[in-house]
Amino acid sequence: MRASSLLVAVATGGLVSAAPSPKPPAATGSVNPFQGKTQFVNPSWGAKLDKTLKSFLFKGDVANTLKTLKVQQTSTFVWVSKIADLPNIDAAIAAARKAQKWTGKKQIVGLVLYDLPDRDCSAGESAGELKSDENGLERYKTEFIKPYAQKVAAAKDLEFAIVLEPDSLGNLVTNMGIELCAKAAPTYRAGIAHAIASLQYDNVHLYIDAAHGGWLGWDGNLPLAAKEFAEVVKLAGEGKKIRGFVTNVSNYNPFQAAVRENYTEWSNSWDESHYATSLTPHLEAEGLPARFIIDQGRVHLPGARKEWWVPPLSGY
Question: Mind telling me the catalytic residues?
Answer without folding.
Answer: 120, 167
